Amino acid sequence: xxxxxxxxxxxxxxxxxxxxxxxxxxxxxxGVSVSVNTVLGDLERQPGEFVTDPxxxxxxxxxxxxxxxxxxxxxxxxxxxxxxxxxxxxxxGEIDWFVCRPPTSFLPDxxxxxxxxxxxxxxxxxxxxxxxxxxxxxxxxxxxxxxPRNWPHIRAVYEAAGFRHMGDTEVILLARVADLPRDxxxxxxxVGRTVGECGTRFTAYADGVARGFIEVDTALARPERLTxxxxxADIGNLHVEPSAHGTGLEQRLLAHxxxxxxLCGVDRLVAYEPETDGSALGRLTGAGFRxxxxxxxxxxxxxx
Length: 304
What we know:
This is N-acetyltransferase. By secondary structure, this protein is of the alpha+beta class. It is 25% helix and 36% strand. It folds into 2 domains: 5-161, Aminopeptidase, CATH 3.40.630; 174-295, Gcn5-related N-acetyltransferase (GNAT) (Aminopeptidase), CATH 3.40.630. α3 packs across α4. It is elongated. The mean pLDDT is 92.
Protein backbone atom coordinates (compact mmCIF):
# COMPACT_ATOMS: atom_id res chain seq x y z
CA UNK A 1 0.00 0.00 0.00
CA UNK A 2 1.31 3.45 -0.90
CA UNK A 3 2.55 5.80 1.79
CA UNK A 4 0.26 8.63 2.92
CA UNK A 5 0.93 12.21 1.87
CA UNK A 6 0.01 15.41 3.72
CA UNK A 7 -1.47 18.38 1.89
CA UNK A 8 -3.82 21.32 2.48
CA UNK A 9 -7.52 20.57 2.66
CA UNK A 10 -9.45 20.88 -0.60
CA UNK A 11 -13.20 21.37 -0.85
CA UNK A 12 -13.48 18.02 -2.62
CA UNK A 13 -12.30 16.41 0.65
CA UNK A 14 -15.40 17.60 2.48
CA UNK A 15 -17.38 14.34 2.49
CA UNK A 16 -14.48 12.12 3.50
CA UNK A 17 -13.34 14.53 6.21
CA UNK A 18 -16.88 14.77 7.57
CA UNK A 19 -17.10 10.98 7.72
CA UNK A 20 -13.84 10.90 9.66
CA UNK A 21 -15.09 13.58 12.06
CA UNK A 22 -18.36 11.72 12.62
CA UNK A 23 -16.49 8.49 13.37
CA UNK A 24 -14.79 10.27 16.28
CA UNK A 25 -17.97 12.03 17.43
CA UNK A 26 -19.85 8.73 17.54
CA UNK A 27 -17.31 7.25 19.96
CA UNK A 28 -17.98 10.05 22.47
CA UNK A 29 -21.69 10.90 22.42
CA UNK A 30 -24.50 8.63 21.16
CA GLY A 31 -26.84 9.70 18.41
CA VAL A 32 -24.95 12.77 17.22
CA SER A 33 -23.45 13.46 13.81
CA VAL A 34 -22.55 16.65 11.98
CA SER A 35 -23.24 17.73 8.44
CA VAL A 36 -20.76 18.61 5.73
CA ASN A 37 -21.87 22.25 6.06
CA THR A 38 -21.09 22.16 9.77
CA VAL A 39 -17.54 20.96 9.13
CA LEU A 40 -16.96 23.47 6.33
CA GLY A 41 -18.34 26.29 8.47
CA ASP A 42 -16.05 25.33 11.35
CA LEU A 43 -13.03 25.64 9.06
CA GLU A 44 -13.95 29.26 8.29
CA ARG A 45 -15.06 30.54 11.70
CA GLN A 46 -16.51 29.37 15.01
CA PRO A 47 -19.39 31.69 15.94
CA GLY A 48 -20.02 29.79 19.17
CA GLU A 49 -16.56 30.85 20.42
CA PHE A 50 -17.54 34.50 20.53
CA VAL A 51 -14.65 35.43 22.84
CA THR A 52 -11.69 33.62 21.28
CA ASP A 53 -12.73 33.36 17.63
CA PRO A 54 -12.18 37.08 16.88
CA UNK A 55 -8.60 36.66 18.13
CA UNK A 56 -7.74 34.16 15.38
CA UNK A 57 -5.50 35.56 12.64
CA UNK A 58 -4.99 32.43 10.56
CA UNK A 59 -6.74 29.08 10.05
CA UNK A 60 -5.24 26.11 8.22
CA UNK A 61 -6.67 22.65 7.64
CA UNK A 62 -4.41 19.77 6.63
CA UNK A 63 -5.26 16.23 5.58
CA UNK A 64 -3.30 13.04 5.14
CA UNK A 65 -4.31 11.16 2.02
CA UNK A 66 -3.54 7.63 0.90
CA UNK A 67 -4.48 6.59 -2.62
CA UNK A 68 -7.21 9.23 -2.83
CA UNK A 69 -8.63 8.45 0.59
CA UNK A 70 -8.48 10.97 3.47
CA UNK A 71 -7.23 9.03 6.50
CA UNK A 72 -6.40 11.92 8.86
CA UNK A 73 -7.22 15.60 9.26
CA UNK A 74 -6.27 18.51 11.50
CA UNK A 75 -7.47 22.08 11.92
CA UNK A 76 -4.98 24.64 13.24
CA UNK A 77 -5.46 28.16 14.57
CA UNK A 78 -3.02 31.02 14.98
CA UNK A 79 -3.88 33.77 17.47
CA UNK A 80 -2.89 37.39 17.13
CA UNK A 81 -0.13 38.88 19.27
CA UNK A 82 -1.75 42.25 20.03
CA UNK A 83 -3.00 43.53 23.38
CA UNK A 84 -6.68 42.80 22.60
CA UNK A 85 -5.98 39.06 22.78
CA UNK A 86 -6.23 37.32 26.16
CA UNK A 87 -2.86 36.63 27.75
CA UNK A 88 -2.86 32.84 27.46
CA UNK A 89 -3.90 33.01 23.79
CA UNK A 90 -1.67 35.90 22.75
CA UNK A 91 0.77 34.81 20.03
CA UNK A 92 -0.27 31.18 20.50
CA GLY A 93 -0.87 28.41 18.01
CA GLU A 94 -3.33 25.56 18.48
CA ILE A 95 -4.28 22.28 16.95
CA ASP A 96 -7.99 22.88 17.40
CA TRP A 97 -8.85 19.30 16.47
CA PHE A 98 -7.09 16.27 15.08
CA VAL A 99 -8.65 13.07 13.72
CA CYS A 100 -7.14 9.96 12.15
CA ARG A 101 -8.01 6.35 11.47
CA PRO A 102 -6.94 4.05 14.31
CA PRO A 103 -4.74 1.07 13.50
CA THR A 104 -6.68 -2.14 12.88
CA SER A 105 -5.94 -5.60 11.56
CA PHE A 106 -7.01 -4.33 8.15
CA LEU A 107 -5.00 -1.08 8.43
CA PRO A 108 -2.12 -1.88 10.78
CA ASP A 109 -0.13 1.13 9.56
CA UNK A 110 -3.00 3.61 9.92
CA UNK A 111 -1.17 5.31 12.77
CA UNK A 112 1.62 6.25 10.35
CA UNK A 113 -0.69 8.74 8.68
CA UNK A 114 -1.54 10.31 12.04
CA UNK A 115 2.11 10.72 13.02
CA UNK A 116 2.96 12.07 9.56
CA UNK A 117 0.16 14.62 9.80
CA UNK A 118 1.26 15.62 13.30
CA UNK A 119 4.79 16.29 12.05
CA UNK A 120 3.29 18.59 9.42
CA UNK A 121 1.25 20.36 12.11
CA UNK A 122 4.35 20.93 14.25
CA UNK A 123 6.25 22.22 11.22
CA UNK A 124 3.48 24.73 10.54
CA UNK A 125 3.45 25.87 14.17
CA UNK A 126 7.23 26.32 13.95
CA UNK A 127 6.90 28.43 10.78
CA UNK A 128 4.32 30.56 12.58
CA UNK A 129 6.95 31.02 15.32
CA UNK A 130 4.26 31.04 18.00
CA UNK A 131 5.02 31.65 21.66
CA UNK A 132 3.28 28.44 22.77
CA UNK A 133 1.51 25.55 21.04
CA UNK A 134 -1.72 24.05 22.39
CA UNK A 135 -3.82 21.09 21.30
CA UNK A 136 -7.44 20.13 21.77
CA UNK A 137 -10.10 17.88 20.29
CA UNK A 138 -12.91 20.41 19.92
CA UNK A 139 -14.82 18.95 16.99
CA UNK A 140 -17.82 20.98 15.75
CA UNK A 141 -20.30 18.81 17.66
CA UNK A 142 -21.88 19.10 21.10
CA UNK A 143 -20.10 17.42 24.03
CA UNK A 144 -16.85 16.79 22.07
CA UNK A 145 -13.94 18.82 23.47
CA UNK A 146 -10.62 18.29 25.19
CA UNK A 147 -9.16 14.85 24.52
CA PRO A 148 -11.83 12.23 25.28
CA ARG A 149 -10.64 8.95 26.76
CA ASN A 150 -12.42 7.22 23.84
CA TRP A 151 -9.63 8.30 21.48
CA PRO A 152 -6.51 6.45 22.69
CA HIS A 153 -5.05 6.55 19.16
CA ILE A 154 -5.20 10.37 19.16
CA ARG A 155 -3.66 10.52 22.63
CA ALA A 156 -0.80 8.32 21.40
CA VAL A 157 -0.12 10.73 18.52
CA TYR A 158 -0.24 13.79 20.82
CA GLU A 159 2.06 12.29 23.41
CA ALA A 160 4.54 10.96 20.84
CA ALA A 161 4.75 14.49 19.41
CA GLY A 162 5.54 16.03 22.79
CA PHE A 163 2.12 17.32 23.88
CA ARG A 164 1.44 16.98 27.59
CA HIS A 165 -1.81 17.22 29.53
CA MET A 166 -1.48 20.37 31.65
CA GLY A 167 -5.11 21.13 32.47
CA ASP A 168 -7.98 19.48 34.29
CA THR A 169 -10.15 16.45 33.59
CA GLU A 170 -13.92 16.68 33.28
CA VAL A 171 -16.48 13.92 33.63
CA ILE A 172 -19.26 14.02 31.05
CA LEU A 173 -22.50 12.46 32.26
CA LEU A 174 -25.68 11.53 30.43
CA ALA A 175 -29.20 10.84 31.68
CA ARG A 176 -32.41 9.79 30.03
CA VAL A 177 -34.90 12.50 30.81
CA ALA A 178 -37.40 9.77 31.64
CA ASP A 179 -35.07 8.61 34.45
CA LEU A 180 -34.77 12.03 36.10
CA PRO A 181 -36.77 12.87 39.25
CA ARG A 182 -40.42 13.84 39.01
CA ASP A 183 -41.49 17.04 40.70
CA UNK A 184 -43.11 16.72 44.10
CA UNK A 185 -44.47 20.08 45.33
CA UNK A 186 -42.89 21.27 48.56
CA UNK A 187 -44.23 23.80 50.99
CA UNK A 188 -42.67 27.24 50.87
CA UNK A 189 -40.73 26.61 47.63
CA UNK A 190 -41.64 28.06 44.25
CA VAL A 191 -39.80 27.68 40.97
CA GLY A 192 -39.73 30.37 38.28
CA ARG A 193 -38.60 30.10 34.65
CA THR A 194 -36.59 32.87 32.98
CA VAL A 195 -33.91 33.42 30.36
CA GLY A 196 -30.51 32.35 31.71
CA GLU A 197 -26.91 32.87 30.75
CA CYS A 198 -26.55 29.36 29.30
CA GLY A 199 -30.13 28.47 28.38
CA THR A 200 -33.51 28.41 30.10
CA ARG A 201 -33.15 29.07 33.85
CA PHE A 202 -35.28 27.57 36.61
CA THR A 203 -34.82 29.35 39.95
CA ALA A 204 -36.03 27.97 43.27
CA TYR A 205 -37.28 30.51 45.80
CA ALA A 206 -37.93 30.01 49.50
CA ASP A 207 -39.44 32.87 51.48
CA GLY A 208 -38.91 35.08 48.44
CA VAL A 209 -35.15 34.42 48.35
CA ALA A 210 -33.40 32.58 45.50
CA ARG A 211 -31.86 29.38 46.90
CA GLY A 212 -30.63 27.75 43.72
CA PHE A 213 -31.02 27.49 39.96
CA ILE A 214 -30.47 25.24 36.98
CA GLU A 215 -30.02 26.24 33.34
CA VAL A 216 -30.64 23.84 30.45
CA ASP A 217 -29.66 24.48 26.84
CA THR A 218 -31.97 22.90 24.27
CA ALA A 219 -30.28 24.59 21.29
CA LEU A 220 -27.43 22.10 20.84
CA ALA A 221 -28.88 20.83 17.56
CA ARG A 222 -29.32 23.82 15.32
CA PRO A 223 -30.90 22.30 12.18
CA GLU A 224 -28.69 24.20 9.77
CA ARG A 225 -25.56 22.78 11.42
CA LEU A 226 -26.31 19.34 12.81
CA THR A 227 -27.87 16.44 10.99
CA UNK A 228 -28.48 14.23 14.00
CA UNK A 229 -28.57 15.59 17.54
CA UNK A 230 -32.28 15.96 18.13
CA UNK A 231 -33.45 15.17 21.64
CA UNK A 232 -30.20 16.27 23.29
CA ALA A 233 -29.77 19.11 25.80
CA ASP A 234 -27.21 19.96 28.43
CA ILE A 235 -26.95 21.60 31.85
CA GLY A 236 -25.24 24.95 31.45
CA ASN A 237 -25.37 25.85 35.16
CA LEU A 238 -26.54 24.13 38.33
CA HIS A 239 -26.14 25.88 41.67
CA VAL A 240 -27.72 25.43 45.10
CA GLU A 241 -26.90 27.60 48.09
CA PRO A 242 -24.79 25.70 50.65
CA SER A 243 -27.50 26.22 53.26
CA ALA A 244 -29.94 24.31 51.01
CA HIS A 245 -27.74 21.24 50.51
CA GLY A 246 -29.45 18.08 51.66
CA THR A 247 -32.92 19.59 51.44
CA GLY A 248 -33.80 18.01 48.10
CA LEU A 249 -33.73 21.37 46.33
CA GLU A 250 -31.28 20.18 43.66
CA GLN A 251 -33.52 17.20 42.92
CA ARG A 252 -36.51 19.51 42.61
CA LEU A 253 -34.67 21.78 40.18
CA LEU A 254 -33.73 18.76 38.08
CA ALA A 255 -37.35 17.64 38.15
CA HIS A 256 -38.60 21.02 36.92
CA UNK A 257 -35.97 21.05 34.18
CA UNK A 258 -36.88 17.48 33.19
CA UNK A 259 -40.57 18.36 32.92
CA UNK A 260 -39.71 21.27 30.63
CA UNK A 261 -37.42 19.06 28.52
CA UNK A 262 -40.22 16.55 28.02
CA LEU A 263 -42.39 19.33 26.62
CA CYS A 264 -39.49 20.24 24.32
CA GLY A 265 -39.22 16.68 23.01
CA VAL A 266 -35.79 16.22 24.60
CA ASP A 267 -35.01 12.72 25.82
CA ARG A 268 -31.33 12.98 26.89
CA LEU A 269 -29.60 15.47 29.17
CA VAL A 270 -25.84 15.98 29.47
CA ALA A 271 -23.97 17.30 32.51
CA TYR A 272 -20.32 18.18 33.09
CA GLU A 273 -18.37 18.12 36.35
CA PRO A 274 -14.69 18.27 37.34
CA GLU A 275 -13.22 14.87 38.06
CA THR A 276 -12.19 16.17 41.48
CA ASP A 277 -15.75 17.10 42.59
CA GLY A 278 -16.85 13.76 43.97
CA SER A 279 -19.86 15.17 45.81
CA ALA A 280 -21.36 16.73 42.69
CA LEU A 281 -20.72 13.55 40.71
CA GLY A 282 -22.42 11.54 43.44
CA ARG A 283 -25.50 13.76 43.44
CA LEU A 284 -25.85 13.54 39.67
CA THR A 285 -25.43 9.77 39.49
CA GLY A 286 -27.91 9.50 42.34
CA ALA A 287 -30.41 11.50 40.26
CA GLY A 288 -30.19 9.18 37.24
CA PHE A 289 -27.04 10.27 35.38
CA ARG A 290 -24.40 7.84 34.21
CA UNK A 291 -20.80 8.54 33.27
CA UNK A 292 -20.46 8.89 29.50
CA UNK A 293 -16.73 9.57 29.29
CA UNK A 294 -13.88 11.62 30.74
CA UNK A 295 -12.03 14.25 28.77
CA UNK A 296 -8.62 15.77 29.45
CA UNK A 297 -8.40 19.50 28.74
CA UNK A 298 -5.38 21.73 28.28
CA UNK A 299 -2.66 20.09 26.16
CA UNK A 300 0.58 21.98 25.62
CA UNK A 301 3.59 21.14 23.48
CA UNK A 302 6.47 20.30 25.80
CA UNK A 303 8.90 18.03 23.94
CA UNK A 304 11.28 15.95 25.99
